[in-house]
Specification:
The complex is a heterodimer of chains A (351) and B (118). With 351 residues, chain A is mainly α. Helices cover 65% and strands 0% of the residues of chain A. Chain A contains 13 helices and no strands. In chain A, helix 2 packs across helix 10 and helix 10 packs across helix 12. Chain B has 118 residues and is mainly alpha-helical. In chain B, 66% of the residues lie in helices and 0% in strands. In chain B, helix 2 runs antiparallel to helix 3. The chains are: A mainly alpha (351), B mainly alpha (118). Chains A and B meet through helix 2, helix 4, helix 5, helix 6 and helix 10 of A and helix 1, helix 2 and helix 3 of B.
């Protein structure tokens, strides 16, 4: 063991960082792959179907667990079509610009107390910046495709994303007021105590606004007019095929996981245990730890799928009304309420 | 201080490189048999009527302008929110007045119908 640690510390810093990044990215990619499988399976069962159940490993079906791998391999061997009228460079840059920030946002994400790649003080600001960059991928893809469906889809999608980003930003300001720090680890530590110290309770309206905005931000049902199949086919990525499409697809799911993980971190106490501290102190798996963060993240990820199976699609004017006329007033009012609570030093939450 | 940002930079580079590598792999492994029909823009099987970079509704433009105003607002709120318990009542009231002015502007644009989509 000591030899391994000695070997690790002797490695150049850059190599250490790259290995850490791989250690974050590989499980994340695996999670993305199996999230698509979970989506098809869960929605299948919700609609009284089986979902994928054929593709397995080594001749065994295994409930279709080989499906995401088979999908990835299939997409890899599909032709990448670049339309004649498209701006070729922008057309190929757009998917990279979508997945880059979706992965890079995990750089400041703390997985457990002290377990973070870059413990920067501007963590939340960085996450907000990275998630905002996603809109460039959408708008460049729609423009570069030179197709009417892609163009309309990208304009709609961009307007929707930036509208909900305001509500999202205001909700984050509420979290900052409550926590008094931009560092994501400090935000979790500020929620220490019990389930009722977690920010979901004092920031309940902001919590709901944040998660719903997250659903809208990732263009998921019921806010998926950008790719409304019945009107504009697939929206901004209608001209993309093969691996270029797969990259957009991966980025979308990576963003959903990111939003779920951030909701768990900022409003549900992150890695803190929901059980009273004196019961679980030192008890394996029940004490504070990564497993709780994972469980909470999975709960939010499940909500994304549940929404898709349950709600009909919103109309575009209803989406804009919800974003501008409902969410923004709610968040402004609640920021004022939270800052009054903070200044008045309400006991219990803001010590 | 600044070296804590090195992993962030490397992560951004690797994240984008992963995207590039996947697309490169797609190009390397997939067939490439273009023809003029396959490469024409998709329009439900018709020939494309006109240039697709067409006029669009001015309201999208309005949304973009309003977004800039509000996003700037959030940029002002961020530092204030972090140090709220250190700046006392003066800091608190300064931001409340600022938010009040913002709300007046918000009510104005609402009444003007800038947020209507019919």
């Amino acid at each position: 063991m000591d030899a391994v640690i000695a070997l690790w510390t002797e490695l150049p810093v850059v190599i250490q960082i790259v290995m850490k990044i791989v250690a974050i990215m590989l499980p994340l990619m695996l999670l993305v792959a199996y999230y698509t499988y979970a989506e098809r399976k869960i929605i299948g069962y919700m609609q009284v179907r089986m979902g994928p159940n054929r593709v397995g490993f080594f001749g065994m079906r295994l409930w279709g667990l080989g499906q995401p791998i088979a999908d990835a391999v299939k997409l890899m061997f599909k032709e990448i079509i670049i339309p004649t009228g498209a701006s070729k460079t922008l057309f190929l840059i757009a998917p990279m610009l979508t997945i880059g920030p979706a992965l890079a946002a995990w750089a400041v994400f703390p997985f457990d107390a002290g377990l973070v790649l870059a413990d920067v003080n501007a963590g939340l600001l960085y996450i907000l910046a990275m998630t905002s960059l996603g809109v460039y991928g959408v708008i460049i893809a729609g423009w570069a495709s030179n197709s009417k469906y892609a163009f309309l889809g990208s304009i709609r999608s961009a307007a929707q994303i930036i509208s909900y980003e305001i509500a999202m930003g205001f909700a984050l300001v509420g979290v900052l007021v409550a926590a008094g720090s931009l560092n994501l680890g400090d935000i979790v530590n500020a929620q220490q105590g019990s389930v009722f110290h977690w920010f979901w309770l004092p920031l309940l309206p902001l919590f709901l606004v944040y998660f719903i905005s997250g659903v809208a931000e990732t263009n998921r049902a019921p806010f998926d007019v950008a790719e409304g199949e019945s009107e504009i086919v697939a929206g901004f990525h209608v001209e993309y095929s093969g691996m270029t499409f797969a990259v957009f697809f991966l980025a979308e799911y990576a963003n959903m996981i990111l939003i779920s993980a951030l909701s768990a971190l900022m409003f549900m106490g992150g890695w803190l245990s929901p059980l009273p501290q004196n019961w679980v102190d030192g008890v394996f798996l029940l004490d504070d730890g990564f497993q709780w963060l994972l469980l909470k993240t999975f709960a939010f990820m499940f909500l994304f799928l549940w929404f898709r199976a349950t709600f009909p699609r919103y109309r575009y004017d209803q989406i804009m009304r919800l974003g501008w006329k409902v969410f923004i007033p709610i968040t402004i009012v609640w920021i004022v309420v939270v800052s009054v609570m903070r200044v008045a030093e309400m006991p219990w939450w803001f010590n | 201080m600044l070296e804590t940002y090195l992993p962030v930079l490397i992560f951004i580079v690797i994240g984008t490189a992963v995207g590039a590598a996947m697309i490169g792999l797609g190009f390397a492994l997939s067939p490439n048999r273009p023809d003029s029909e396959k490469n024409s823009p998709y329009e439900c099987g018709f020939e494309a009527f006109e240039d697709s970079r067409m006029k669009f509704d001015v309201r999208y433009y309005l949304v973009a302008i309003l977004f800039i105003i509000f996003d700037l607002e959030i940029a002002f709120l961020f530092p204030w929110a972090v140090v709220l318990d250190q700046i006392g009542m003066v800091g608190f009231w300064a931001m409340m007045i600022f938010l009040g002015i913002l709300v007046v502007g918000f009510i104005y644009e609402w009444k003007k119908g800038a947020l209507e989509w019919e």
